[in-house]
From TrEMBL:
UniProt name for this protein: S23 ribosomal protein
Origin superkingdom: Bacteria
NCBIfam families noted in UniProt: four helix bundle protein
Family annotation (Pfam families): 23S_rRNA_IVP
InterPro entries in the cross-refs: 23S_rRNA-intervening_sequence, 23S_rRNA_IVS_sf
């Protein structure tokens, strides 16, 4: 169950809903989840942008970006597969951490000259969706 606060005539009301019940009739597989599909796109974009990085970064920043970005859809699918809203929520939180980690690695890469802000602009925008 997920709690959400809403204001009702000046009073705070907590509303609960089950993540797994939300449009589950349309979701037959984790690959049907829009959030997983977007995560896969981000990971793919990260793989392409890091191909341009210097070879000496293969086991440094390239590896960090690829691991953190691939962790986004991986945690979404793993959480979905747990079949419990509590576990799913926990894995979504882990995926959000991977989003932040990926953004940090990309921004640092631009700051130290491994890429330009233009190279990563689309990925950064997708991470913020």
């Amino acid at each position: 169950m997920v709690g959400k606060r809403q204001e009702a005539k000046g009073k705070s009301v907590k509303i609960f809903f089950d993540i797994k019940d939300f449009k589950m009739s349309e979701i037959k597989d984790f690959k049907d989840l829009i959030i997983w599909q977007k995560g896969m796109e981000i990971a793919e974009q990260c793989y392409f942008v890091t191909k341009k990085f210097p070879k000496e970064e293969l086991y440094g920043m390239v590896l960090q970006i690829r691991k953190s970005s691939s962790s986004i859809p991986a945690n979404i699918s793993e959480g979905y597969g747990r079949k419990s809203s509590r576990d799913y929520k926990r894995f979504l939180s882990i995926a959000q951490g991977s989003v932040n980690e990926t953004e940090t690695h990309l921004l640092l890469s631009a700051r130290v000259g491994l890429c330009t802000l233009k190279d990563i602009e689309t990925i950064i925008n997708n991470l913020k969706e």
